[in-house]
Amino acid sequence: MDWALVHKIWEKWTSNSVGSSDQPLKAALLINYDPTGPSRLLSTIAEQEGIKATPMELSQFVDFVNQNKLQSESFSIGPNQYIVTSIHENWFCARSMNTSNPAGEGAIVMQTAGFLFVGLYNGSIGSASRAMGAVDQFVWQLSRKNL
């Protein structure tokens, strides 16, 4: 794994996609993830922007993904609890069940060869479309480098 390259792609991408109100995502997480690896290897936070996730909460999230409970249970990231709203081959979308934001909040989770990528956004349909575009752009950049 070329960590310097991953970090460079992350830094460039987050500067244009995460953080301020005019950017598509309020936060993003990049989690080391290998579902075929030994269970004793814990997934770790490779990068994060706009959120301070803890290893414990991400461990629970990774367990949720590993156990394929997408249709039957919810998951938490930060203060929000999410329920999955759509499932696709290597990604899924979720909406927050306990947000105080009147427009709502959502999450997009994509799996790459070595990572789980989580993009969090505020808003509804239009915001979700912008967020999906930003997430897809980052994952495409990683996949070009086989990461």
TrEMBL record:
Species of the source:
Actinidia chinensis var. chinensis
Q: Which GO terms of the molecular function aspect are on file?
A: actin binding
The identity of this protein, by name, is Olfactory marker protein
